[in-house]
Design goal:
Length: 199
């Protein structure tokens, strides 16, 4: 993500940091922890589950995930204030997690306890289609998983990350066009209410 941001022609200078979720990891620089505020030109790429060049930072096994959530719940200072603020924003986009992945469920439930989500709007998760059911109950599987995430105020986009990115870009272009024509800074009702993945 950091390299992708650096390759854009928008002059972005991203900063990369990772979660110090156990005591063996060095603490964050105090100045960064207390004062850093990302902006559109200097975004923060925060590696929640660790970073590849610091192996001991990676959250990998089931025990790691459990320790990760427990440590986050016990120590509210593990995550920098700017990350907590981002997690409490109106909606979140999850890409790369499986609906059946224990890490996803632990993370979502854990964050719900860390930040105030009472005012959060609907979030979106991008998911691949469920594998074929031996009894052919494909639609039932999708409905079950969709209903499960509805309880957490999350809508499911069924498709690949690249397909979602393309549709998101198309919608953004439509929104930008309507914004220029109508001189408004809010989404049109059509763009707001039409679910992703539908014509």
């Amino acid at each position: 993500m950091k390299r992708a941001l650096e390759r854009t022609d928008l002059g972005k200078k991203p900063i990369s940091e990772y979660c110090r979720w156990h005591k063996a990891l060095p603490k964050l620089d105090n100045d960064f922890y207390q004062r850093y505020e990302p902006d559109k030109n200097n975004p923060l790429v925060f590696h929640l589950h660790g970073i590849h060049n610091i192996l001991e930072s990676i959250v990998l096994t089931e025990d790691d995930y459990l320790d990760f959530i427990v440590n986050l719940s016990l120590d509210g200072k593990i995550l920098p204030p700017c990350v907590l603020i981002a997690l409490a924003r109106p909606s979140l986009l999850f890409i790369g997690y499986s609906l059946r992945d224990i890490s996803y469920r632990l993370i979502h439930r854990g964050f719900s306890g860390l930040v105030d989500t009472s005012r959060r709007a609907r979030s979106v998760t991008v998911q691949l289609e469920p594998p074929p059911h031996p009894e052919g109950r494909f639609d039932d599987a999708k409905k079950y998983m969709g209903d499960y995430f509805q309880l957490m105020n999350i809508s499911v986009y069924w498709g690949t990350a690249s397909a979602f990115a393309k549709e998101l870009k198309d919608r953004w272009n439509m929104f930008s066009l309507s914004d220029n024509v109508l001189h408004t800074h809010s989404l049109t009702p059509e763009l707001c209410t039409r679910p992703f993945g539908n014509p």
